[in-house]
Write a structure and sequence with these properties.
The protein is 49% helix and 9% strand. It is of the alpha/beta class and 458 residues long. Among the domains are: 218 residues, Alpha-Beta Barrel (TIM Barrel), CATH 3.20.20.140; 96 residues, no CATH class. Helix 4 links the parallel strand 2 and strand 3. Helix 1 packs antiparallel against helix 2, helix 8 crosses helix 9 and helix 17 packs parallel to helix 19.
Length: 458
């Protein structure tokens, strides 16, 4: 089969129709099995934080497409994290199992932390507001007791989006968009983000005004010749519109305040009820709160946090040498703090903004001191996910609490499980042979003695 035909199949992975995505993955895997697609051995790559098109992926990737991306490029592990929804969880985990990829899933939102109401946490310029996550979900089925919390996340996002639209439409006159007619169709499940609205405004301008370049130059206060150059660079173009219209200082920006977002405690109730892992989100160590990571992480651990998410590029891939030096040292320090506090690490590139990498460059010298810790976190989150999905014996289970009472013990166990158990059908068959009558030591013994699966080298 030609590369063009393979590319066409890969493009179908991003169809809004689930059946088309599933069929395309089956066809691609069959081609790989027949030797018509070369698949590499595992490379030293893991991306545990990829947004899918159920919130926003800058390259249009569905959960199934991300699973195939990981397979095609030999990633050791992959994870999706979507804003305010769990819509892609079952699809992604099923696709990863089919493709024999270690996979995990998560959710991200913003919460308000009253104890830090007057301090910047990880959302610059927005005191008290905190990006926060849950990772290691095993299903998109949510217990009835916490289903209203999940529904509320989507409703709050919808209200914020429409408030932005109501402010931006008058400013961009004669260009305007309708939320239901122009924005919702850009999403597969009706959960748009600011970036979907940016795309809708670009489309509307192209249809409405005779000279879009002149229009955007005026509205964004950019010189005409500079605007033409910017528009030739799609990532820069779309990021500029969002920054000038919807972010802080823009006409559509709404300053966050208490009541606009759920509380940390509410969000944690949802995560824990689903058997998943409350996960802090690290920016770069430069905000008021992050300058004292020991205090901040201690506060979050008391609230139930067991993991920490880092976007590595934000902390080292920086042009300014002095800024880079500061942020690289902050990165090393927060990883050290996380290890001292027995917090699992979850890292990735996001892919929800134009220009972000497909995967981190773990061969970069700047990441050498933290690389092994990143991989251990990926294995642990996968190990928890597989144990929870197949046996209900994940990190938060009563079995884990009884046999592995400390975070340190759980981290070691789930890292071993995730690292030694192969993904796909073979690994599932092995895990299905286990049960809650076994101790963690007995399970690990079966891995090495009965199955002969040694540690996969990093």
């Amino acid at each position: 089969m030609s590369e063009d035909q393979i590319s066409q199949l890969e493009s179908r992975l991003n169809s809004f129709e689930a059946e088309i995505r599933a069929a395309a993955l089956r066809d691609l895997l069959a081609l790989a099995e027949a030797g018509e697609i070369d698949l590499p051995a595992h490379s030293d790559v893991a991306n545990m934080h990829c947004h899918s098109f159920f919130s926003f992926n800058a390259y249009g990737h569905s959960p199934t497409s991300i699973a195939w991306l990981a397979k095609r490029h030999g990633w050791r592990a992959a994870g999706i994290v979507d804003f305010d929804v769990l819509d892609g969880v079952d699809e992604f985990l099923a696709a990863c199992e089919q493709a024999a990829v270690r996979g995990s899933t998560g959710i991200e939102t913003r919460v308000f932390v009253p104890e830090y109401a007057d301090q910047e946490i990880n959302s610059p310029g927005e005191p008290g507001v905190c990006y926060h996550m849950g990772i290691g979900f095993a299903s998109d089925q949510v217990p009835a007791a916490v289903a209203p919390i999940l529904a509320d996340l989507g409703q709050r996002a919808d209200v914020r989006n429409q408030a932005i639209l109501a402010r931006v439409n008058p400013y961009l006159d004669p260009v305007s968009i309708d939320y239901e007619a122009d924005v919702l169709p850009l999403t597969p499940a009706g959960h748009p983000t600011e970036r979907h609205m940016v795309a809708a405004y670009i489309q509307a301008a192209e249809k409405t005004v005779p000279d879009p370049t002149a229009f955007w130059a005026e509205k964004l206060d950019v010189a005409l010749d500079q605007m033409a150059t910017i528009m030739a660079n799609a990532p820069r173009y779309q990021n500029l519109i969002r920054a000038r219209l919807m972010k802080r200082g823009g006409v559509g920006y709404i300053q966050p305040k208490s009541g606009m977002f759920p509380s940390l405690e509410q969000f944690h109730r949802l995560i824990v009820a689903c058997g998943a892992l409350p996960c802090a989100a690290w920016l770069d160590g430069t905000t008021t709160v992050e300058r004292d990571p020991e205090e901040w992480m201690g506060f979050l651990i008391d609230k139930g946090v067991v993991a920490l998410n880092i976007i590595p590029d934000r902390n080292w891939y920086i042009a300014d040498p002095s800024v880079k030096q500061t942020k690289v040292q902050n990165l090393y320090h927060i990883v050290e703090v996380a290890q001292q506090l027995d917090l699992l690490l979850n890292v990735g590139t996001e892919m929800n903004s134009f220009g972000q990498k497909q995967a981190d460059d773990f061969s970069a010298p700047e990441l050498a001191p933290v690389r092994d810790a990143f991989f251990e976190g990926a294995y642990a989150v996968y190990g928890h996910t597989a144990m929870q999905r197949i046996l209900g014996l994940g990190y938060q289970s009563e079995w884990a609490q009884a046999h592995l009472p400390s975070r340190c013990e759980r981290n070691r166990f789930y890292t071993r499980i995730g690292r030694q158990t192969p993904p796909g059908r073979e690994g599932r068959t092995f895990l299905e042979s286990l049960d809650a009558t076994l101790t963690p030591g007995e399970m690990l013994a079966r891995l090495t003695q009965d199955r002969g699966w040694g540690l996969e080298t990093v």
